[in-house]
Design a protein that fits this description.
The chain has 387 residues and is α/β, with parallel strands linked by helices. Helices cover 43% and strands 13% of the residues. It contains 14 helices and nine strands. It has an eight-stranded parallel beta barrel with strand order 1-2-3-4-5-6-8-9, surrounded by four helices. α7 runs parallel beside α9 and α10 packs parallel to α11. It is globular and about 55 Å long. It binds (3S,4R)-3-hydroxy-2-oxopiperidin-4-yl beta-D-xylopyranoside. The site of (3S,4R)-3-hydroxy-2-oxopiperidin-4-yl beta-D-xylopyranoside has 6 residues, from loops.
Length: 387
């Protein structure tokens, strides 16, 4: 053990020395030669990612976007400019969740979600509706009510209100978020408040409800931990496919599988073969896939920033090369654009001067990082292949 730790320390020191001598520049690859990656580019000089074009033979478009919070998206703000330059769809990161929309039974709070949808409308962007049912964003008052008496009309009226208000501008709805649980679940289905009250059928029931209210939007089940080789991810991919198969056999309306893709450098390489197989099965069922919450957890803060950024970029690029090779994948959304606004900042950025996780395409000064260019290249490469 002591030997391993010593080796790690030596390795780290070696990397630092190399960095000081400028040797790392050579290791960082061509992305570092691009203007923005050197940190000298002005915001407006960031190359926009390709806006939707007819990339697929069936005329559908590959879409790219980011999660945003209404509070960060003031007109003319840096984030607003970045979103306009780079995205063709946006996901409300928190503002369309049930606990934000309806903090109390009679108290609705539509303003933040309205602002996001208005912004999208003004700038010609589509919106992913995120998310109708997610235990973690279910208000406490509702959990108590449903636990006391399973009453589907509560779900139905929430769907009616929210879909009714936003559907005109929502291209796809995350109807059920994070239903898979292979460790404590029932047939791979998470035992959450909805499952407790209505059984596993809450999933098909909510999809049917959503289809009735949103006949033209694409309906999504969205989940996490599907990208790596470890036993948990393997089991989750299997459980997800079983759920999808059951739904298809029952004729339940479902269009898209949401793959969150909260990547994590500590989990090793992307399970390329398994992930490809997973996406091909999804395609074979007649479903599409959207990468819905892409970011990278990287927390080796003692390493030089250029090296960390390179690792994140390479990981993202590898992931995108794997998933974009599959025609089922029709969209890529990052979970925020800049590290400063990342939800991972909540985990890692606590306290004055604490280092930020650098897992998004732009740094805290809104400058593009290697990951941005790799996303850009991956989308372009895909476009060339599919066109
Ligand atoms: C997260 C947001 O980023 C946080 O700001 C919020 O506090 C909690 O939710 N999976 C999801 C997202 O589907 O809705 C979550 O977003 C991240 C995990």
């Amino acid at each position: 053990m002591a030997v391993i730790i010593k080796l790690q320390v030596l390795l780290q020191r070696g990397v630092l020395m190399l960095a000081r001598r400028g040797v790392l520049k050579g290791l960082m690859g061509s992305a570092m030669l691009m203007p923005g990656a050197l940190g000298t580019a002005k915001l407006d000089a960031a190359w926009p990612l390709p806006r939707s074009a007819n990339l697929f033979s069936d005329g559908a478009a590959l879409r790219y976007g980011s999660a945003v919070r209404a509070s960060d998206l003031g007109e003319g703000s840096q984030l607003a400019r970045l979103v306009q330059a780079n995205c063709d769809l946006i996901t409300p990161e928190i503002d369309m969740k049930w606990d934000v929309l309806q903090p109390s039974p009679n108290g609705w709070n539509f303003a933040p979600a309205d602002n996001i949808v208005d912004f999208a409308q003004r700038h010609g962007l589509s919106v992913r509706g995120h998310t109708l049912l997610w235990e973690q964003s279910t208000p406490r008052w509702l959990i108590d009510r449903i636990d006391a008496r399973p009453d589907w009309s509560l779900i139905e009226s929430f769907f009616r209100t929210v879909i009714g208000r936003y559907d005109h501008h929502v291209c796809e709805w995350d109807v059920v978020n994070e239903p898979i649980d292979t460790e404590h679940g029932h047939r791979g289905i998470r035992r959450n408040v909805f499952q407790r009250a209505f059984g596993n059928h809450y999933i098909s029931r909510s999809l049917r409800e959503a289809r009735r209210l949103a006949p033209h939007a694409r309906l999504v089940i969205n989940d996490y931990s599907l990208e790596y080789q470890n036993p948990v991810d393997q089991a989750r991919r299997r459980a997800f496919l079983m759920l999808l198969e059951r739904l298809i056999v029952e004729g339940v309306p479902l269009d898209v599988v949401g793959i969150q893709a909260h990547l994590d450098l500590s989990k090793g390489d992307i399970a390329a073969r398994e992930l490809t197989g997973f996406l091909q099965e999804i395609g074979a069922m007649g479903l599409e896939a959207t990468i819905t919450e892409l970011d990278v957890k990287e927390a080796i803060f003692s390493e030089p920033i250029p090296l960390r950024d390179r690792r994140v970029a390479d990981h993202v690029r590898h992931f995108l090369d794997v998933v974009l090779a599959e025609p089922a994948v029709r969209g890529v959304v990052t979970w925020g654009l800049s590290d400063k606004d990342s939800w991972l900042a909540d985990d890692f950025g606590k306290g004055q001067g604490a280092p930020l996780n650098r897992g998004l395409p732009f740094d805290s000064a809104m400058q593009p990082k290697p990951a941005h260019w790799e996303i850009h290249r991956a989308l372009l490469a895909h476009k060339v292949r599919e066109a």
